[in-house]
Amino acid sequence: MAWQIKFSSIRFFAGLLAAVCLLNAGGVRAQQAAVGPSFATGKAASEAEFIAAADEVLSKMSEITGLKLRTPLKKSLRSREEIRAYVIKQMNEEKTLAERYAGARSAEAFGLIPKGFDLDAFIVNVLTEQVEGLYDPKAREFYIADWSPLSEQRMVMAHELTHALEDQHFQIEAWLKAARPNDDAELARDAVLEGSAMVAMIDYLMLGTGRSLRDLPEFDPSMLIGDLGSTPTLQNAPPFLKDTLIFPYLGGLTFSAAILKDSGWSGLPGLFEKPPVSSQQILHPGLYRSGRSSQSVALPSLEKLLGNNWSLLDENVMGEFGWKEVLKQFLDDTRAKSLAASWAGDRYALYEERNSKRMVLVIFRRPNLFSFDTPEGGVFLYCFGVECMTMEGTTRKVFDGLTKAIEWPMAPQPTQRLEPAARAKTAMIFGFAESNLAAGEVVLSPHFLQSQGI
Ligand SMILES: [Zn+2]
Q: How far is the CA of 247 from the centre of ligand 1 (A)?
């Protein structure tokens, strides 16, 4: 899916994070100036200053993370044009034109980007605007934007050099790609890379204070989010793209901080040996700790059924992050979040008719009960074995009565009650119901939601 088009192949540090990190870390920096990194200068660095600062930060990051530098690192200052050229080259190498087309069409089919949205141009523009530093795992080289003042560069270095050190120990590009073809699992690994680099960066900023991120009882990563609307390209971007840009950094930060809290940095190799398998495990670190993962969902091929002119464009897993983005189109954030959390596995396939470019989107997801309220009453869709039943305009009590009458197992009960006063049309997918997972699958799509007036 499009969220893997993607920012994931490029290890970068975005200006929108840098700006806010500097703001929030201001108090910390003032305390540690004598011991830790110097943030005194506001002007762009010379090449010599840059190299000296990079070596100093690298040795600090090695101390923080416990990862030794195994081979010397290439480092250079790059202009905006050079960074833009790198982004374009990387995008072309990472995915073929056909693969990028398929990803964009999938995002379009789910309603996540407008029809005809130029995703490639968006990615190039946003990265050119936002990138403050890059680590290129192919060339094993890191770049810093030459327009940034040295004070900001040090923080960006802390982030990028963590990628470099992790790469020398864990071969990050091969490790990331080992999750393929599961996009959701790849997103989870991306969140480990970006999240651990964020934790290391914050530890760097706190050097000399005698504290680290582990000591902060309730760190709220949302305080790192800047005003995403403040940059030209992001100003009018679909919310999905903003969320996709941010998720590996902030979702990954919360996850990595939670996992490393008990073990400290000695727990880092464990994250690479046993990576999280889904965005759900990133969003709920407890599920990663307990090893709870979703069941895989199989989808039969529809090519023969659809006819000669149709071909499979894309087939993959949405995951909890993807579902949250889909549901946010119809529901408020809180409800979309809680509904998406009930995810227990899915698979989608997108077919395209060659001439007309018409699309058919097929989605299977678990759990097997889907229900929502409308002003005219509840709507229930429940599948068992090879059969599904629907009831509309009624209550859960009546639905349960029918379930009993036809001698089906009772459907899972809702994990959260909707407020009785909620007048808005609302949807609910009931929580984990493992006993029912094998019973059947619900086919649902945004078009289905729309047709139900949500
Ligand atoms: Zn990064």
A: 12
